[in-house]
Amino acid sequence: MYYDRLTRxxxxxxxxxxxxxxxxxxxxxxxxxxxxxxxxxAAHEAxxxxxxxxxxxxxxWRMARPGPVAFVRLFPWFxxxxxxxxxxxxxxxxxCMRRFSLPHDPVSAPLASAVQGVxxxxxxxxxxxGTLIFWTMAPGVKMTGxxxxxxxxxxxxxxxxWCYLLLHAGMGMAHQMAGHATLSRMFRFREQESEQG
Length: 197
Known about the structure:
Elements: H1 5-27, H2 39-64, H3 71-74, H4 80-98, H5 110-136, H6 145-177, H7 182-186
């Protein structure tokens, strides 16, 4: 599968940013009434907004220059045809895994594309919810109402992102070890634009 250089760079920066944010979230002390957040919490806020900016740039670039994965493949949930293709591809994966192998995916395989879409959506919602908390939370005041719901969503999405990260990175490594060169293609930055196809 071919990805242009900017897509590869954004993928790398977003991946590093998400890993850093998730690791930081494990050790930071959240602010509560009568208690300020610690330095790790402060180091979670600003990079989170930078990460949201990178995600917005990724969305903009994705709209401006469609890559090898059609938008409907990233978010197949509203297309009956795309859902059928996704289901068929899932069955293909299960059949291969029963034989302890992995299929060599063609460009824009439905299951891999839908997984990418879920990760992009989760990361974006994490960034938006975290930014909302940053700009609306009053120091030393307990979050209530809609802001508390946003905080709960942010924390729940963080757990989901750990699961996604393990799945996505794990499958990428499994495909690489199976000889599909998945990771080496995604992180090869010297490739020329003419190598597309």
